Amino acid sequence: MSTPTARDTPTSAATALHGLWQCAGLPAKALERASLAGAEPALPSSFAVGTAAQASIAAAALAATELGRLRNGIEQQVSVDMRHAALECCSYFRIDGRKPEMWDRLSGLYPCGAGGEGGGGGDGSRGGWVRIHANFAHHRDGALRLLGLPEGDATGRDEVARALRGWSALDFEDAAAEAGIVAAALRSLAEWDAHPQGRAVARRPALSIDRIGDAAPRQLPPLPSARLPLQGLRVLDLTRILAGPVGGRALAAYGADVLLVNAPHLPNIEAIIDTSRGKLSALADLRSDRGREAFERVLGDAHVFVQGYRPGGLQDLGYGSEQVTALRPGIVIVSLSAYGPTGPWAARRGFDSLVQTTTGFNAAEAEAFGSGPPRALPMQILDHASGYLIALGAQAAMIRQLNEGGSWHVQVSLAGTAHWLRSLGRVERGFDAPKPDFSDLLETSRSGYGELVALRHAAQLSATPPRWARPSVPPGTHGLEWPIA
Questions:
Q1: Dihedral through CA 446, CA 448, CA 450, CA 454, nearest 10?
Q2: I need a surface site. Which of 2, 63, 246, 341 has the fewest CB within 10 A?
Q3: Whether the Cβ atoms of residue 165 and residue 114 lie closer than 8 Å to each other
Q4: What is the CATH number of the domain that holds 261?
Q5: Which is it for the CA torsion 346, 347, 351, 353, positive or negative?
Q6: Is residue 125 predicted with pLDDT exceeding 70?
């Protein structure tokens, strides 16, 4: 895959969907059943974020109908409105009328070096900018230790900003990675394209699906015409931060039994209230014999295994891709990473906001806007689009498994999604988009956290409208087991 080139106008959503569909290896005729309405700009951005949202959601939904067609012969139409798709990717929700706080106060961009805001990162000689991700206490405290500041929530942004005057952005980025914490230096698009990891990402597709073992074709339960297309599909969801949970939520909306498995010792963010809609939610400590035994029982009946652990994390616990396929031949494994499986940063941790910064989006948005500091995209589109690519890949691989057998490995990365987003082109006068209005797209539901107000799913299926049959509930609400059919 080559380096994206700038376009005067963005790629059409239909063309973007066609590209994803080809990448997934699914039959082109199914694209005739997709209807895409709306146009850019959907949200204030110089990038085609509305197109990315619409195309990725449409691809996931269309793949669900294709899997359903193979099971019962019913062809469904899929329609997705761009505005609805873009707003669904904004993570808007309220719980008992409260707006959750999505960011720690130390998270964000800071100018580095004695020169302050001069420079965009580059070779580090001008200071540059660095983004710190502090939403988890251990990441926050790790950054504070690196800066020589007191750990805990008493340290403020001003103290962090003063401490970063003694660093260049690139030096802090490297030191953070060495310490196992997360930070990202601001780069331009051109600087990222020249970076060894940028080149490694550019050589890979946004979505890869590889056969990694032999196994007989699996069978899914019979699918009555009135049932959602993924009814009876069992998905183990071992993810925590937006992209993976969004992918599992999409599969649940199309009827899959999604079993979210959290480690009792690992923290979550409040977005879990929204992203666990439709899922069962259990706990398992994979460091203990008891937890491993219970986990392997449910693994033995799973069709799909989605994981977003840090690179190598599950391998260390005994659940890398080869180990899982040995335990469950014929399974579809989906792995999410920040920077992809190859290149010098393959093992590096990262989140949407950090990948936006280091791959050039924040600098490019500021340049397009015309003034001010580095500027984030209007939503965490890398997370959300990656989530729908996870759902697309899981279903495409499942179709291959049903047709030809085998165990399959799907790989998605935030940086790969960023590369795909750039390939969609830029939006002239994108910042003229109207202010987001969610009011006509909201639905109210009960949850284990209180009354949840959140967006309806943007994809519409003509025969079996997507829905979340199970309310979102806190981790550990359910036992580690599949529901009785």
A1: -60
A2: 2
A3: yes
A4: 3.40.50.10540
A5: negative
A6: no
Q: Tell me, yes or no, whether 179 lies in a domain.
A: no
pLDDT at 122: 38
In a domain, 382, yes or no: yes
Kindly report whether the global pTM for this prediction surpasses the value 0.90: yes
Average pLDDT of the residues of the chain: 94
Residue 9's pLDDT is what? Answer: 74
Q: Are strands 332-337 and 304-307 parallel, antiparallel or unpaired?
A: parallel
According to the model, what pLDDT value does residue 208 have?
A: 98
> Which three-class secondary structure state does DSSP give residue 364?
helix
For the chain, how many structural domains are there in total? 1
User: Which of 132, 103, 92, 89 is CA-nearest to residue 379?
Assistant: 89
**What digits encode the pLDDT tens for the residues 220-264?**
999 999 999 999 999 999 999 899 999 999 999 999 999 999 999
According to DSSP, the residues that pair with 237 across neighbouring strands are: 260, 306
Specify if 68 maps to a domain: yes
Cα 10–254–228 angle (5° rounding)?
A: 130
Domain assignment of residue 190, yes or no: no
Residue 292 is part of which domain span?
A: 13-98+200-343+376-461
**Residues 25-52, buried b or exposed e (16+ Cβ, 10 A)?**
ebeeebbebbebebebbbbbbbbbbbbb
Query: Residue 116: which pLDDT band, with cuts at 50, 70 and 90?
Result: very low
